[in-house]
């Protein structure tokens, strides 16, 4: 019942013949990209340096903000007297 039905002839005749217009377009070769370990190391070091600089800027901004709040508080007390 579920057995495959094979055709009587071993190879069926071709449905159509290929013409010159049916040829596939010529493909351009894909350039090879090679990544060296030096490039990977440079990207990693650059990432670490940029992350450290970003952290330094964030810490500096927080410390300047705290200093501004303290100075504002001291000046406000000075003006009240």
From TrEMBL:
- The source's domain of life comes to Bacteria
- Locate the region Disordered: 1-27
Q: Which residues cross the membrane?
A: 38-71
Q: Which UniProt keywords apply?
A: Membrane, Transmembrane, Transmembrane helix
Its recorded name reads: SpdD protein
